[in-house]
Amino acid sequence: FNWMQKQSIDLLFLDIQMPNLTGIDFLKTMKPEAAVIFTTAHRDFAVEGYELEVLDYLLKPISFKRTLQAVNRYLKINRQQPYTVQETLPAPDPSENGFMFLKENKKMIKVYFDDILYIQSLKDYSRIFTRRQRIVTAKNLLYFENRLPQNQFVRIHKSYLVALSKVNAYSNSSVEIYESNLPLGRTYKQRFVQLIGKEEIS
User: At 162, which CATH number?
Assistant: First the structure.
């Protein structure tokens, strides 16, 4: 513990089942500034792990491909070059194509980027909030994170992607957009503050 407190750690792989202390108890006790990726042989801890805002949850046996995917997620959040070329859709130039069509039920709905307030993850689905409507579509949050202009939209939590221009206020733990108060995750806080161009609240 003393060694960790003296080091600058960016990313921590943490096994949940350890001899004297579980990874969950360790995380609750230490509250490290580093992003945390849990590793375990049991699925039962997944819910509690995500409640602690861990970056990812790797189930043993862990493949090399899955490990790279988790590391690249960290690098993407921190705007660093990933170790492998990811097959993702390029973010369109908003001056050329400032909208997308999203399928809800059996209808394709046109959504302008400027109308989006924020997007909520529903696992394999997402709920898009605009001033006039809410749309549920069969696209996960990572799809929108890759598709929308990255200088205008930012992840603030494992479950939320927000439009920076729609942010009314924020604190150390939340972001206010119109009448909604959304959680600001520890892992995503630094990136959010950098993009919004304001000082971090102490």
Answer: 2.40.50.1020
pLDDT tens across the length of the chain (202 residues)? 556 666 677 888 888 887 777 788 887 777 667 788 888 877 666 556 666 777 888 888 888 888 888 888 888 877 665 554 344 444 444 434 588 899 998 899 999 999 999 999 998 899 999 988 999 999 999 889 888 988 899 999 999 999 999 999 999 999 999 889 999 998 899 889 988 876 555 5
Rg of the chain in Å (alpha carbons): 18
How many domains does the chain fold into?
A: 2
The strand order across the sheet containing 134-137 reads 134-137, 125-130, 116-122, 160-163, 153-157
Q: Of 176, 187, 73, give the one whose Cα is nearest residue 118.
A: 176
Rounded Cα distance, 182 and 1, in Å: 32
Q: How many CB atoms lie within 10 A of CB 12?
A: 19
Using omega within 30 degrees of 0 as the cis cutoff, is the peptide bond preceding 61 cis? yes
Strand (E) positions, the chain? 11-15, 35-40, 56-59, 99-104, 107-112, 116-122, 125-130, 134-137, 153-157, 160-163, 169-170, 174-177, 180-183
Domain at 47, CATH number: 3.40.50.2300
Q: CA-CA distance, 38 to 136, in Å (whole number)?
A: 30
